[in-house]
Amino acid sequence: MIIIGEKINGSIPGIKQYITTQNNRRIRELAIRQTEAGADYLDICAGTAAAHEAGTLKWLIAQVQDAVDTPLCIDSPDAEVLEKMLTLTKKPGLLNSAALEKGKCDLLFPLISDTQWQIIVQTTDDDGVPEDAENRIKIADAILDKAARYGVKPEQIHIDPLLTAISANNQSMVVFTEAVRGIRKLSSKLKITAAISNLSFGMPLRQVINQHFYAVAAFLGLDSAILDPCSRELYTSRLVMDALLGRDRLCRRFTNAYRKGMTGRKKPDC
Question: Helices (DSSP H) in 125-203: which residue ranges?
Answer without folding.
Answer: 133-149, 172-184
